[in-house]
Amino acid sequence: MKTIIFTIIGLVLSFTLSAQDLFSKYESMDEVTSGVINSKMFSMIASMDIEIDDPEAKAYMDMVNKIENIRLLVTGNPLVSKNLTNDAESYVRKSKLDELMRFKDGEQNVRFYVKEGKDSDHVKELMMLITGMGEMLNGEDLTINGKKRNIETVVISIIGDIDLKQISKITKNINLPGGEHLDKAGEKKF
Amino acid sequence: MIRYSSILTTLLLTVLFMGCQQGPSLQSYFVQHQESPGFIQADIPMSALLSNELNLAPDIKEAWSSVRRLNMLAFKKNDDEISDQEYLAVQSILKNEKYEELLRMNSKAFKTSFYTVGNDTEIEEIVFTISQGEVGFLVARLLGDNMTFKKAAVIANSLDQMKFNESALEQFSPFFK
Known about the structure:
The complex is a heterodimer.
Chain A: H1 2-15, H2 19-26, E1 32-38, H3 39-46, H4 55-64, E2 67-75, H5 78-94, E3 98-105, E4 108-116, E5 122-131, H6 133-137, E6 142-144, E7 147-149, E8 153-163, H7 167-174, H8 179-187
Antiparallel strand pairs in A: 1-2, 2-8, 3-4, 4-5, 5-8, 6-7
Chain B: H1 2-20, H2 26-33, E1 39-45, H3 46-49, H4 58-64, E2 67-76, H5 80-94, E3 100-106, E4 110-118, E5 123-132, E6 136-147, H6 149-158, H7 166-169
Antiparallel strand pairs in B: 1-2, 2-6, 3-4, 4-5, 5-6
Helix pairs in contact in B: 4-6
């Protein structure tokens, strides 16, 4: 009887593994560069260049006000990359995210996952997983803050009420790595 | 009888004391540490910080005038353990729900975070922290006076055209490299 109860509790817990857990596990590691942007920041960005008359600006503001947070993990360490990819994939399985699309170019692999939202244009969560970036950047010296960086794996998670058609506007504004791929997410009809 | 009254007094004092101690605030952390070895502190009114106030566009000027003062505390690293410990202490104060996190970033070279205190219409305080491996860490508080999100956005946007009074900030220069 006890075993059954524990199994059920275990199952319930494993289904509720949140993006938060994934990020708190990796964000303070030395080999990982991480970032979290919360809703309050978006309302501040939104209040920066306000031209309410402009319908596009208004659409943008409506969009950012519905985002709860954006989380970003970047690593160049091969071992951390491997673990992060595994954990991200198991998170996708456990939280039952649907694959929106994937691109593959040589070693580089870009995948998008979404959690269904109120209609076909809106999602509750958008997750982007890029692996094998090392090859793409080969031969290029990427320097951030005067130090050489090596990027292998990138995980981006956006949570909120997300309009896929508007998402590229945000990535243009905050310059996330892989933002150009997010552009494509808006074009895709599904 | 004397016993009862002394117990009562103790109880009263405890209640009073607890009433004042609603968890540590950054303010009390600043006060406790300003004299501690390794820490440097500055409390600068905005009028003393800006040197080109007169030549600013009206909206920028108005935004900056919503900042009352800049209160900064920094720890120049001389001991890894103390630095880590104190930075954690600051972070745990900032976990209080009064501090709303706007963003945070961690990397090997530095850790930084950005918070506001207030409500939807008025920002009382903007808090910025940065911790850099070899240098130490810095906590800056911008204390507002009718500051709004819009004004805060103008402030952030106009940072590059501001001229600050460098002598006021000189001791903190290692943190702004």
